[in-house]
Amino acid sequence: MYQPVGYARKAFVEEVVLSRSVRIGTRDSELAMVQTRWVLAELQQAHADHQFSYLEMKTQGDKILDVALAKIGDKGLFTKELETAMLDGRTDLAVHSLKDLPTNLPEGLTLGAITEREDPADAVVFHPRLQGATLDTLPEGTVIGTSSLRRLAQLRHRYPQFQFEDIRGNLNTRIRKLDEGKYDAIILAVAGLRRLGWPERIGQILPPDISLHAVGQGALGIECRDADPEIHGLISVLHHAPTAQRCLAERALLRFLEGGCQVPIGVFSAIEGENLTLQGMVASLDGKQLIRDTHSGLATDAEAIGIALAEKLKNQGAQEILDVIIKENRQP
Ligand code: DPM
Fold first, then answer.
1. Are 1-116+218-239 and 122-205 equal in CATH topology?
2. Residue with CA closest to ligand 1 atom 12
3. How many CA atoms lie within 13 A of 207 on its CB side?
4. Nearest-angstrom CA–CA distance, 214 and 286
5. What average pLDDT score do residues 43-70 get?
6. What is the 266 CA–ligand 1 centroid distance (Å)?
7. Catalytic: which of 28, 62, 92, 100?
C-alpha cells in the first residue's frame, strides 16, 4: 500500500513521544512508597502520553537506625541519594516528605512543586490499654516515645512530670514497640498515620498551643532539575498554591534561623483571604525556655513573612537557644 514518506515519519515520531519515560526517585519505606504511588498515579492520569515509573533507594537515614537522629547531623539525611540520582540522570524527579527536605538544595536542583497538605498536626498514639486517654489525664512518670527534638522540647515544657525516651525506626516498627509496652504513648504526624491507613490509632490530635508542627509537615515536595522545563511542566498538576505559600513562609523561617531540620523549631500557618499568618516557636531541650511569636502579611510575600518572624524570634534570644543545641548535638 502506498504511504507518503512524511506520514510514516510522523507515525514514528509519535511513537517515540508516546514512550517518553519519566523516572521518579523514592525512598523504599512504606510511607514513602504510599506517597510515591499516589504521585505516580496523579501524573500518569494527567499525562497519558508519558510512561511513569519509580526507582526505590535507601538513604543514609534509612540505614542508620541505632543512633539518635539529632546526633547524625541533618544535611540531607533522607534526601541525598535521591538527589544524586537526579543529578546523574538516573531519575527525573524525587518525591519527599517536605519536612525531610533541607531548606538549601544542591546546585542544579529545585523544589518544582508542593502538593496539597494533609492535616499538619502531631498526634498521640497511646498503648492499647490507655484507649480513650489524653495527655492531660496521664500520671507522673508516663513514658512518651519520640526522637523529635521539637516534640520533646514542647511536651517537656507542658508536661515536665513525664519521662521522655528516644524511639527510632519506621512507623510500623514504632507502633510495634509501643504495643509491646516499651512506651505509654508515642508522638507521630497525623499525615503519616492517615496515609498508612491507621487513622484509628490517632488517640489525640495535639492543638497548636501544645505542639507546633514541623516546617513543611503534611505536604510532599517534588524536587527536580532546575533546567528541565519538561519535568516542571509535567509536575505543575501536583502543585497546590496555598500549601506552597504556607510552606515557603515556614521554610524561610527555618532557613533564617539557621537550624537545619532536627532542631526544636515549630510552626503553624494559615491563610485568610489575602493574608498569611505564621506562628513560630523555638525551645530549649529541657523545655524551660520557649519563645513564640507571630507575623502576618500578604500571602504573596510568603518568604518575607518567614524572614520577618525569624528576626522577631532572634531578637528574643532564639539563636542563642539553637546554638547551644547545635553544639551539643554536633558529631564527634
Ligand atoms: C523530621 C522529623 C521527623 C521526621 C522531626 C520533627 C520526626 C522524627 C521522629 C524532620 N522528619 O518532626 O520534629 O519523630 O522521630 C517524618 C515523618 C513524616 C515525614 C514521621 C512523623 C510523615 C509526616 C509528613 C520523620 N518525615 O513525623 O511522624 O509527611 O509530614
1. yes
2. 214
3. 4
4. 18
5. 85
6. 12
7. 100
100 is catalytic: yes
Residue whose CB lies within 8 A of the most ligand 1 atoms, among 99, 114, 171, 172, for a mutation test: 99
pLDDT, one tens digit per residue, over 243-292 is 999 999 999 999 999 766 578 999 999 999 999 999 999 999 999 999 99
CATH 3.40.47.10 corresponds to the domain 240-332: no
For the chain, where are the alpha helices, taking DSSP H only? Answer: 5-18, 30-46, 60-63, 69-72, 80-87, 149-158, 171-179, 190-195, 229-235, 241-256, 302-315, 318-329
Class of domain 122-205: alpha beta
Cell numbers placing 210 = 501544645
Q: What atom of ligand 1 comes closest to residue 216's alpha carbon?
A: 30
pLDDT, the chain, mean? 91
Q: Which residues pair with 220 in a beta bridge?
A: 97
- State how far the Cα of 249 lies from the Cα of 256, in Å rounded to an integer: 11
Higher pLDDT, 165 or 62: 165
Asked whether the beta carbons of 263 and 150 are under 8 A apart, the reply is yes
Q: The domain 1-116+218-239 is classified under which CATH number: 1.10.760.10, 3.30.930.10, 3.40.309.10, 3.40.190.10?
A: 3.40.190.10
**150 close to 264: Cβ distance less than 8 angstroms:** yes
**Residues with Cβ within 6 A of ligand 1?**
69, 97, 99-100, 146-148, 150-151, 188-189, 191-192, 214, 217-218, 261
